[in-house]
């Protein structure tokens, strides 16, 4: 038998009595899919930023794709389609991009286009550029930028990128 249930969630996504679920999404979040950072991202979003329910796009490089229209046009188009879907359907109050240190996608695909000597500074510059690209399509959209940075003790600290 292949259709046997193996787990039952107690969360009902249709529950109209559930205050959180009945509202528009608190946020649409776009961050990298690197497995090393998923738990830190979730902790930061729910505990650091106190975001309730968020729609998530987790793809290699996160928001960096928005500046890659000329270099990776298929990846750009598919990712933009997904992001636009969530923005249009979920009517989020905020859109959140999170970059992170040691981003392999950024190192391998994006960093060469930036003059800043420091790779984190290159990422900040590209995230700002990505925000501008998205706001060209959605003019009044609030897009917050954050960066997961390394610390000497091995923990992750989150910086706000202005
Ligand atoms: Zn990454």
Question: Can you walk me through this structure?
Answer:
The chain has 162 residues and is of the alpha/beta class. It has a single domain (19-161), classed as Carbonic anhydrase (Beta-carbonic Anhydrase, Chain A, 3-Layer(aba) Sandwich), CATH 3.40.1050.10. The chain has five helices and five strands, in the order αβαβαβααββ. The chain has helices spanning 19-22, 38-48, 73-90, 104-110, 119-137, and strands at 27-31, 54-58, 94-100, 143-150, 156-161. A five-stranded mixed sheet has the order 2-1-3-4-5, sandwiched between helices. Helix 2 (38-48) links the parallel strand 1 and strand 2. It starts with 18 loop residues before the first helix and ends with a strand. The mean pLDDT is 91. The structure holds zinc ion (ZN). Zinc ion binds at residues 32, 34, 61, 100, 103-105. The site of zinc ion has 7 residues, from helix 4.
Highlighted features:
5 strands, binds zinc ion, 5-stranded mixed β-sheet, 162 residues, single chain, alpha/beta, Beta-carbonic Anhydrase, Chain A
Structural class: alpha/beta
Any idea of the CATH class?
Alpha Beta
Number of helices, where a helix is a run of at least 4 consecutive DSSP H or I residues:
5
- Order the strands across the largest sheet as they lie in space: 2-1-3-4-5
Name of the CATH architecture: 3-Layer(aba) Sandwich
C-alpha Rg, in Å? 17 Å
Number of strands: 5
Distance between the termini: 54 Å
Share of helix among residues? 25-40%
Bound compounds, each kind once, are: zinc ion
Number of domains: 1
Describe the sheet with the most strands. 5 strands, mixed
CATH superfamily name? Carbonic anhydrase
* Mean pLDDT across every amino acid position: 91
